[in-house]
Amino acid sequence: MENKIDFDRIERRAALRKGAFRTADYIFLTVWALVVLFPFYWMVLTSVKSYGAYNGEYIPRFFTASPTLQNYVDAFTTVSLGRYFLNTIIFTVVTTAVMMAVIIPAAFAFARLEFPGKGIAFTLFLSLMMIPNELVVITNFVTITNLHLRNTFTGLILPSVTSVFYIYLLKENFEQIPDELYRAAQVDGTRDFEYLTRVMIPISKPTLVTIVILKVIECWNAYVWPRLITDDARYFLVSNGIQEIRENGFGRENIPAMMAAVVVISVPLIVLFLIFHKKVMAGVSRGGTKG
Amino acid sequence: MKVVLQNLTKRFPSRSKKGDDVIAVNDFNFEIPDGKLIGLLGPSGCGKSTTLNLICGLEAPTSGSILFGEDDVTRLPPENRGVGLVFQNYALYPHLTVLDNILFPLQNLRGAEKLPRAQMLEKAMTAAKLVQIDELLERKPSELSGGQQQRVAIARALVKMPRVLLLDEPLSNLDARLRLQTREEIRRIQQETGITTIFVTHDQDEAMSISDMIVVMKAGVVQQIGAPQDVYDQPVNLFVATFLGTPPINVFDGTVRAEKLYIGEAAVCDVPGVGDQRVTVGIRPEGFVLDQNGPFAVKLSRVEVMGRDTSVVSTHPSSRNPVIRSIIPSLSRVDKTAETVRFSLIPQKVFLFDAETEARIPFESGIPGEGKQA
Amino acid sequence: MKKKSMKGWLYLLPAMVFLGCFMVYPLIDVLIYSLEEGYNSASQTYYGVGLYNYSYVLRDPYFLQAVRNTFLLVIITVPLSTGIALLISLGLNAIKPLRNLYQTIYFLPYVTNTLAVGLVFMILFKKTAYTDGLVNLMIQWFGGKSVDFIDGPYWAKMFVLCFYTVWVVMPFKILILTSALASVNPEYYSAAKMDATRSWRVFYKITLPMISPMIFYLVITGFIGAFKAYSDAVALFGTDLNAAGMNTIVGYVYDMLYGNSGGYPSFASAAALILFAIVLTITCINLLISKKHVHY
């Protein structure tokens, strides 16, 4: 015989326990959210503190009484931050465009076309995925040096175009488009290239967008390769530009201006992300699970 | 363990601001006798799965109560109700062997009820033997066929000796051949264990063939409850009459004048005790008897051979379906070249329904009693 | 009827050119470099072929320091980041409102430049002549002594590096784990509920096995990524990592190639190949373990 009273007590206790868990959960999640957000806050905060105010703070302050944009002015004028920006945009756009032009036909060839030696080619291709970038950089450095392509855009872009992973991802995506579509198109007299441009690319748009976004992030944050082959400040990208500023520029003394530079170079990607966050996260997740 | 449902109602608030709430189960009242196999039958969306979820506790009712025996379990969480549930997709843990799957519920017992390993194995073996899966205990679910997976799911539900066993669409994932076999299995298991069992299906064949009682539902409302044959012979409304029976009942527009039923111009049947009115008529396919002088004339479309029976496909202006199907024994020969065929009707297979409410209008045809109304 | 034509090769050509020049050729080249002894990049001559480069590298104290740093980093950050990511994903899975907001916030580090944000971390943790820095301030609130995390004792520097590395790798792991958790069929949980399964048992016996493939994937890629750590360290400690004693294996390779003591592609190649060998071995070990534990 169940007692009605027991029910109430059980229910209340269960609800309390659930509530306690939920609160603890939210606290835990909020803590990490703060850990993630705090550096950004500090970044922006420091960038608007005036030079004198910042250095005068023995105890760092969490707010500033008189925010100033002077640091941003300094950042752009004392070093050619604008130049780094421009270089990076050029680098990103050109590299991504060239990469797309290279990988789309390649993925198409592996996914859809038959040609002698395809099996071997693909196996070799897969094994390339295992090669770490660090190995390859060494020779590329020597190659580019010998071709006198240091401190040029060509030298920056060419080796950065290659990517085995994106070809693999795109090929997988192409393969999911049913055979019947291809055969129907053949019956209609479509040639392969038309099929690629009129059918496969439009259908694969989500994956293509993902790849573009991932590559843009990669190019924007590129550090090692530009660092290796450029020592002329006119060709710096934002990452090694920042590094330069930090060590040889005003980085050592003028922290607020440093932070202003950092904010400036972080903003574009963050803005892009906030607009496209759903697509970005979906794309990375898909790309990650395929790996 | 008898199961009593009293005024059971489940209301889902509407998602949009304008829409109405969805009443998935509306005032369900039923006393399920102990040890019976009950089929909940109805088209998709009729509330049968929701009812199952209410009984097992995965959903809480908006109002009403559920009793197992004398215990009111309405507010009891599912794990305390002692219910075994077999999911439509079996929900077998893919990374555990069959034996581990069956042992899983037993390993959750705690305190006074905790069992030593040997006893757990014994119970698991009993359950496995009951469903005849004892040869496959070391396999993983992915290595089993659909029918075998289903039996494992049943064993897992039974191993903890539940008071009530619930099955959600147990046969819908199986191919036709397996379905016949498996429904017999379910019946056999139920009778061997004697556990009150409720299963949900949209296939009236299944429900009719193995249930002790069936419950026909439509849009959350119970239409009729009764033994399968009773519900078939005495449908309480047009919906129940059309839902049960393969091939489905033939529906006509008709009129009653002077205690005779007229379809079109012909008086096809005597209906003593019924007042003059327009009616909807249902005639079971087996209710037609080939009769050269019969009152009911139809235009012949074709004759289909079924071996044991013959199906006469015809048309009539008052028919609501595109064609009329009449099942006659194959020994009665039909002239395939004739334009018209004449039938006389078996009164017990003719049902009258109110033209507006669709409720059944009974008439004396010599059958005692009527189907129970919900 | 598909006819085999050479057209496929045409489509493949651009990719092959790039991959050939910048991947295949370098691979072979690096192998050769590593075996050429006494290579002099000025005159481009070498003495002979042998394993001298490898023995040099393996005895170089800078290399050994880099190896120690890298191994520490790997051992600390991979389990830590995967574990915390799992906890966060479970936490996210349990709430409905605000979930998207939290997920978007958590993903921010992925789209930011590690060098840029690394600078911020450096500022927060560094003790200068002017100020002790924010983190030290907070330590003092709790009654501790302030430490220079950037220029101070080894354990402090290691701590910042690990902390920053975890901060950077979390977004990807959280994303993968949340989608793995979401892909578990809710019917399993209903079935477990019917059987009165306790929460921790549900986690241990159902949730964990179901997402085990993803967890192993994250561990394997986590190891590979952590071994290649470099830019995180540079972001915190500056380009001259040897001076800070915080060099990593990859940093050593680049130093050999370019830095102050650079111009030695042979040593760089040898070091890079050693790294490759380490990563390959560890990955194989990981794969073997995962085959045993991962379910389907």
Provide a short characterization of the protein structure.
The complex is a heterotrimer of chains A (291), B (374) and C (296). Chain A has a domain at 82-249: Orthogonal Bundle (MetI-like fold).
Overall geometric form of chain A: flat
User: How widely separated are the two ends of chain A?
Assistant: 57 Å
**N/C terminus separation of chain C:** 37 Å
CATH topology of one domain in chain A: MetI-like fold
| Strand order within the widest beta sheet of chain C | 1-2
| Parts with pLDDT < 50 across at least 5 consecutive residues of chain A | none
Number of strands of chain C: 2
Order of helices and strands of chain A: HHHHHHHHHHHHHH
Based on CA atoms alone, the radius of gyration of chain C comes out at 24 Å
Q: Find the biggest chain interface.
A: A-C, 91 and 88 residues
> Could you give the count of β-strands of chain A?
0
Structural class by secondary-structure content of chain A: mainly alpha
The CATH superfamily of one domain in chain C is identified as: MetI-like
Structure in words:
The complex is a heterotrimer of chains A (291), B (374) and C (296). Chain A is an all-alpha fold. Chain A has a domain at 82-249: MetI-like (MetI-like fold). Chain A contains 14 helices and no strands. In chain A, helix 1 (4-47) crosses helix 14, helix 4 runs antiparallel to helix 11 and helix 11 packs antiparallel against helix 14 (255-290). In chain B, a hairpin with a 2-residue loop joins strand 11 and strand 12. Mean pLDDT of chain B is 87; it is low at 369-374. Chain B has helices spanning 48-56, 98-103, 117-130, 146-158, 176-193, 204-210, 228-233, 238-243, and strands spanning 3-12, 22-32, 37-41, 63-68, 71-72, 83-86, 164-168, 196-201, 213-218, 221-226, 250-257, 260-263, 266-270, 277-283, 288-290, 296-305, 309-315, 324-329, 340-345, 350-354, 360-361. Chain B folds into two domains: 3-238, 3-Layer(aba) Sandwich (Rossmann fold), CATH 3.40.50.300; 247-361, no CATH class. By secondary structure, chain B is an alpha+beta fold. Chain B has a six-stranded mixed beta sheet with strand order 6-7-8-3-9-10, sandwiched between helices. The longest helix of chain B is centred in the middle third of the chain and has 18 residues, at 176-193. Chain B contains eight helices and 21 strands. Chain C is mainly alpha-helical and 296 residues long. Chain C has a domain at 46-110 and 154-293: MetI-like fold, CATH 1.10.3720.10. Chain C has helices spanning 7-35, 52-59, 61-93, 99-111, 114-125, 134-141, 154-182, 186-194, 199-227, 231-237, 241-244, 249-257, 265-293, and strands at residues 36-37, 48-49. Chain C has a two-stranded antiparallel sheet with strand order 1-2. The model of chain C has no long low-confidence stretch (mean pLDDT 83). The chains are: A mainly alpha (291), B alpha+beta (374), C mainly alpha (296). Chains A and C meet through helix 1, helix 4, helix 5, helix 6 and helix 7 of A and helix 1, helix 3, helix 4, helix 5 and helix 7 of C.
